[in-house]
Specification:
Blueprint (H helix, E strand, L loop, with lengths): L3 E4 L8 H14 L7 H5 L7 H11 L2 H19 L8 H10 L3 E5 L4 H10 L8 E3 L12 H10 L6 E5 L2 H10 L3 E3 L15 E2 L8 H10 L1
Parallel strand pairs: 1-2, 1-4, 2-3, 4-5, 5-6
Length: 218
């Protein structure tokens, strides 16, 4: 019996990840550096050390990296003001509430980043549990965020379903033993999700109840 649903944040509820990719790609182009999607995809849902290593290799000038980060962040801040939550998110939250499920959020982002968006889109009250990078020693693909959510809900892994958009996030759910539904975005849609429970194109074209039934059967 499924008792809880746990959502990722960046890329799943709000597609800030595609926006980050576009911003870094635009800024790096000014330095004649290309940013292949497969390189950026490695850092989605986790820390950005691999991306920084890539920039060091391409730029040969570590001093430029701080400037690039600040420029990309300023550009992202400007563009993110116009972003909206992904299709079907609100409907999934409403349905989860109607089904009497406990609702959690587990993200590798910081509390300071996540909370203002949850308030802006008036969905913060749906979440009984919110776990961020500030609550754990290790972020995704480590399972700690999900294990702490299970512990707070006092449920077993098989009694929950995770919704993720990234390979790092899905790996974290798998390591925690929780069935995972992948809802990819434009920068994660070509990642290798073959070992995971279920992939759907959008929450806007599916019923949460039907997904739960499908997960139970499988």
């Amino acid at each position: 019996m499924i008792k809880a649903v746990i959502f990722d944040f960046d890329g799943l509820i709000l597609d800030t990840e595609t926006l980050w990719y576009e911003c870094y790609k635009e800024v790096l182009a000014q330095y004649q550096v290309e940013l292949p999607l497969e390189v950026f995809a490695q850092i989605i849902g986790t820390h950005d050390s691999l991306f920084h290593e890539y920039m060091k290799e391409q730029l040969k000038d570590t001093a430029s990296i701080d400037v690039i980060n600040k420029t990309a962040a300023a550009l992202h801040k400007e563009k993110v003001a116009e972003i909206t939550i992904r299709e079907g998110v609100k409907e999934f939250l409403d349905e989860a509430k109607e089904l009497g499920l406990r609702i959690g959020l587990a993200t590798s982002s910081s509390t300071r980043w996540v909370i203002p968006f949850l308030k802006k889109f008036e969905i913060i009250d749906y979440f009984e549990s919110i776990k961020t990078r500030d609550d754990v020693e290790n972020i995704k693909p480590d399972p700690e965020l999900y294990l702490k959510t299970l512990d707070e809900f006092q449920i077993q892994p098989e009694e929950a379903i995770v919704f993720e958009d990234s390979l790092n996030g899905a790996t974290a759910a798998k390591r925690a033993g929780i069935p995972c539904v992948i809802v990819p975005n434009p920068v994660t849609k070509d990642l290798d999700f073959k070992d995971f429970s279920l992939i759907i194109e959008s929450m806007g074209t599916h019923s949460l109840n039907k997904i739960i039934k499908q997960m139970i059967v499988s």
